[in-house]
Amino acid sequence: MSSGTSPLDLTEDHGGGFDPLSASVAAPVVKARGYWELIWIRFRRDRVAVASVVFIVFLLLAAFIGAPIAAHFLGHGPDEIFANGVNQATLIPVGPWTHINTAPYPGASGHFTNTLLILGSDGTLGRDLFLRLLYGAQASLEVAGFATAGSVALGVLMGLLAGYFRGWVDTVVSRLIEVVMVFPALLFIIAVRVVAGPQLNSITFGFLAHGVFTLALILSVVGWFYPARIIRGVVLSLREKEFVEAARMTGASDFRIMCSHLLPHLVAPIIVYSTLIVASNIIVEAGLSFLGLGIEAPTATWGTLLAAAPQFYLTQPWLMVWPGLAILLTTLAFNLLGDGLRDAFDPRARV
Amino acid sequence: MTQFLIRRIFWAIFLFLVATIITYLIFWVIPADPAALAAGKSATPADVARVRHYLHLDEPIWRQYLRFLWNLVGHQQLGNSFVTRQSVNHIIGQDAPVTASLVFGGAIFWLSLSIPVGILSALRPRSILDRVSMSFVLVGISAHPVWIGLILSYLVGYRLHITPIVGYCNFFPGGIGVQCSGPVQWAYHLLLPWITFMILFAALYVRLVRANVMETMSEDYVRTARAKGASESRVMIQHVLRNSLLPVVTILGMDLGLALGGAIFTESIFNLPGLGHEVINAYNTADLPTITGIVVFATVCVIVFNFIVDVTYGFLDPRIRPS
Amino acid sequence: MRRKQYLSLFMLVLGVALLVAATTVGAATSATQKASKSGIKKGGTLKLNENAEDFDFVDPQLAYRTDDWSMLYTTAMQLVSFPEKTGAAGSQLYPQAATSFPTVSKDGKTYTFHIRPGLRFSDGSPVTAAAFQRSWERILSPKMGSPLGVNLDLQDTIVGGTAFLAGKAAHISGIKAKGLTLSFRLTKPNATFVSILSMQWFTAVKPNTPYDDKGINVYPAAGPYYIKARNPGHSTVLARNPFYKGNRPANPDQIVFTPNVDIDQSLLQVKAGQSDLDIGGVPATAAADLAKTYGVNKGRFFVGATSCVNYMAMNNARPPFNNVNLRKAVNWAIDRPAQVRLLGAFAGKRTDQMLVPGIPGYRAFTAYAIKGADVAKAKQVGGSAIASAPTLNVIHTPTATSTNRAQIAEFNLKQVGFKINDVPTPATNYYQVIQTRGTSYNFVTNGGWCADYFDPFDYLNVLFDGSKLQAANNNNYAYFNNASFNAQLAHAASLSGAARAKAYQKLDQELMVKYAPVVPYLISTNRYFTASRVKNWIYSSYFGSPYFNALAVG
Q1: Which of A139, B42, B256, C170 could form a cystine bridge with A301, CB 3.0-4.6 A?
Q2: How confident is the model at residue A289 (pLDDT cuts 50, 70, 90)?
Q3: What mean pLDDT value characterizes chain A?
Q4: Residue B125 belongs to a domain with what CATH number?
Q5: Helices and strands, number each (H, E), in chain C
Q6: Alpha helices, DSSP H only, in chain B?
Q7: Helix intervals (H) in chain A
Q8: Is residue A117 in some structural domain?
């Protein structure tokens, strides 16, 4: 990273110690299948990383398949409001493993079945905290996943263009990055929500939770500069390599060189950084929800659950434990997976 | 060097203009009528029209922006709050010391923790210290800062009564009707916020310092220095630390913007009357001038710090300048 | 910590109104009350927290929120005012700075007051008629930028008001102040004029008080206290007015207000005796526990009624709620107890009518499901129109309480078969959306109204007179406009005494039973917790707070 380096680049990467070049340049040395095989062998040996993958797969299954199943067996949904989910004397949410009556109000005439709240209720509305945690995982993971996909796609495009063409393209992209970094993201988020919130929220593509699209879009727009800078750095060094030179000699177009020759070498850093960005996006989503700028009710996310907890700070402190733990374990798994992938892709970085 | 300096100054001014224009545009496209907001909830249409004229909102957007810019640059005025009609300058003057206490106090905390830990971990990789510190790094970047704050406040503050659960005291003693003030109370109330605020950064910086030191130690010039028979402490101080900590200083400047964003969370958990707290309140009360003022102020801070870092770095590392 | 629970009510204390003052004024009792009853000691500093934003203004001519007014009351010297008494006695006006109620000319247009001699501001200067003239000028001055005065149509009430507001006159020609004699010349007879004067805006201010659209913070006052120091957003300190010689209580030496205190921290401070009271009330989740430990209204934990009715509004001007059957169906469908539970224990009394106890003409009745949602009845009343109704745009602010309130309401509406589009709307455009005629909202969940005057006009005429609808800034955001009802409202307003009360009682019932334009659900209460040293709790349902000057901490 010597040529064309601005002070900005020197400051980058908070000590990940990942050298994407050595990882990606290793590729031409070994034949393609061998390269991935090697990575798989190295990765398999890393027990922590494998455990993380297992956890993440389990989480995905629990969120997307387990949640509806649990709702089916419990006989109620995550957004259902139970009068008896709140203790009628103290008006404080009931605790874990409580069987409650589904009567619309205490003393209502007629026969109403009982239902079980495994982790108790989530607050003054008396909704099922356990189901909301499971369904919350859906929304949180959707936001984190799509925001990561968006920001990485945008970042790779920008980084590739800047690194490959250099010159004014690079200058424009680098300056744009600087502007994005200086500009307060929170303001942007407020503005987008106020201006276009309702229209964007209703975009679900038939499967996203309400409001996920808005947040994913916003996080992509404010988050693309990080992958862009990394990719730009990698491309800057790659384009000086012989294979790029060779491709250029044979008369390959810029587009072809970028797609067929450079992009495959970017797969390793893209995978590693995407994993890490997912983790940070989960944190950001929860933070925005805490400030009331996240996904809107009634959709549960871990962030909205965490945001609702402080109201019962003095009386029901366990309400803030569950969503916090869920966030901690998930981000930890993604971070460990990222570290494991980095080691697998780049054995030299391992100390 | 002069040329470099001038270029950086122009760039900083350009950044400032872009940021203010975007801020201004954003509040212009928001489908809210500032005049109606300023006139109050029960104004008649005639009142709104009067206020609109009074606030120059009936002029074209570019003239409003120029007026805003002129007030800002020429008179250092950011306008008046719609809610309390106080000058936004005054509001920022009251809030900025709180945020500064949090951010700079936190920075001192995380630097004095992460630099020694990072260096020691790098010198003894896979030692117990290294493993502990790497575990801390993982938890630090994985746990949600809001959650850390809530748990700390509940356990340390509410359960164990070691610290206050929330609140802020002025550093300087005295003042009218204040319940607590003075450096001791100030630090006592900020202890948990500092810890909450710094954990993420401490984790990132431990990893950064560790990686930098390790990388520098494997550089040729370090090996050469050792081969020449320089003492170990001399090698460490003159070569390794100097070269591996320089980027840390720079990144500190870059992280200010991120830190100001993070301060919003810490301030809202611990009810600290800082800029972040104010901007969220202003959002909830639709106080557009206060939001804009704080955003502009924060942006200027980030630009100024980046500028200082750039220039300092240019002085320290001459290779940068020609780029 | 924790984001504050923003009050969903309009915190308007707008006594917008032409109400018959006779009912309140006529029965006014003597204001004399000895501050030093047995066991009540003077002295000490009363330390008050506020778990919300600071007073927006302490300038009496700009302030208009309920918390502003309950603080300003301790500093106020008004022509007529409310005494420091609990219950109904506290809502009877008495002449305070005036020697008696005014003499009214035969044409009903000239009101003459005589100011008590010997009254002094906290800087020692005498209170004369000019002090009250100045308060009017500060409200109506174009230099003050006070839209509130305009909204009350004050400028039309008084001769010369319009010219003064337009900046065409140096003084209001209809107000004459000469020594201790003050006279008002009205444009037309106005039975509510004396009541209007009890608002905090019309307190005595020094005749040289400047016009300042940012508001004054520290100024001499003529009441038992004056604002000695203030740091906006951080603290307000009141000290006893050394020149006040009246009978109103002035127990603490000093009163200190500290805003922006965290609500839980505040409760802990009061428990520990570090603070005396949080004027923003206790956390909703703590109320039940406090009541169990300290009892209700037994010395530490107090629950006091307010005049605030909380309601949800349907947009009567657009489909589907132009259909009265659907409005009635919604009144059956909404789970009122759940809405009350949301606010914690002792949050108030559920209701399905607009008038509140204490208002002439109030009589409790039950028209809809007040014990909980009645889904079957709602479906029956709504019939097939529910299924064919367009999707409802449900508007609420994005704060936690408002969101939860909307969640319950939407759940109830879905139960009976409505389709819902939830539209959380930031404060930046919330009021514009609901107060502008013709916007696309169907259902708004955070409506509320508190009155200053115990008169039904302030509820029914102000909120439901469709003939007063304008393009924007409507308080009638149900957009209810019924010619026959409008005419009845106008007729009731012209009545007085028992006939008036009877007319409004009929209208209150007819409004809900026949038209059901809104869903009233709660008459709210305020919940307070005091430190053990606090004595002499006298609660005002007018201010929704205790009289701070009466609290004793000596």
Answers
A1: A139
A2: confident
A3: 82
A4: 1.10.3720.10
A5: 18, 19
A6: 2-29, 34-39, 45-54, 61-75, 88-123, 128-142, 145-152, 183-217, 220-227, 232-234, 242-254, 256-270, 275-284, 288-316
A7: 7-10, 20-29, 32-45, 47-61, 67-74, 129-165, 167-182, 185-201, 212-223, 225-238, 242-249, 254-256, 263-290, 302-308, 321-345
A8: yes
Mean confidence (pLDDT) of chain B: 84
Residue B156, in any domain of the structure: yes
Give the residue, A50 or C457, on which the prediction is more confident. Answer: A50
DSSP single-letter state for residue C127 = P
Q: Which domain holds residue A315?
A: 135-344
CB B279 within 8 A of CB B264: yes
Q: How far apart are CA B315 and CA A68, in angstroms?
A: 61
Tens digit of each residue's pLDDT (9 = 90 or more) over C500-514: 889 999 999 999 999
Q: How many interchain CB pairs under 8 A, A with B? A: 147
- Count of helix runs (H) and strand runs (E) in chain A: 15, 2
What is the distance between the alpha carbons of residues C162 and A328, in angstroms, rounded to a whole number? 64
Two structure tokens written together for A240: 């000086």
Between residues B320 and A196, which one has the greater pLDDT? A196
pLDDT (mean) for C121-125? 95
CATH architecture for residues C305-526: Roll (3.10)
Best of A6, A52, A218, A290 to mutate (most B CBs within 10 Å, chain B): A290
Query: Do A146 and A280 reside in the same domain of the chain?
Result: yes
Whether the pTM exceeds 0.90: the reply is: no
Give the residue numbers spanning the domain of B147: 97-320
Judge contact between A121 and A94, C-beta under 8 A.
Answer: yes
pLDDT at A281 over 90: yes
The label of the residue with tokens 């919350």 reads: A136
Residue ranges covered by each domain of chain C: 11-280, 305-526
Residue B13 belongs to some domain of the structure = no
pLDDT in tens, A30-64: 455 677 888 888 888 889 999 999 999 999 999 99
Indicate yes or no: CB of A125 within 8 angstroms of CB of C408. yes
Cβ neighbours around A35 below 10 Å, total: 18
Q: What number is the average pLDDT over the span C44-49?
A: 93
Per-residue confidence (pLDDT) for residue A7, from 0 to 100: 32
Q: Chain A partners of C345 at a C-beta cutoff of 8 Å?
A: 90-91
Q: Which of C333, C278, C356 is nearest to C443 (CA)?
A: C333
Instruction: Tell me, yes or no, whether A185 and A99 share the same domain.
Output: no
Name the band, by pLDDT with cuts 50, 70 and 90, for residue C17: very low
CATH number, domain with residue A170: 1.10.3720.10
User: What's the ipTM?
Assistant: 0.85
Rounded to the nearest angstrom, the minimum Cα separation between C551 and chain A is 28
Q: Same domain, yes or no, for A111 and A142? A: no
Q: Measured in Å, how far apart are chain B's first and last C-alpha atoms?
A: 12
Asked if residue A153 and residue A110 are part of one domain, the reply reads no
Least confident of A307-321, C227-241, C529-543: A307-321
Give the chain C residue whose CA is nearest to the CA of B266. C1
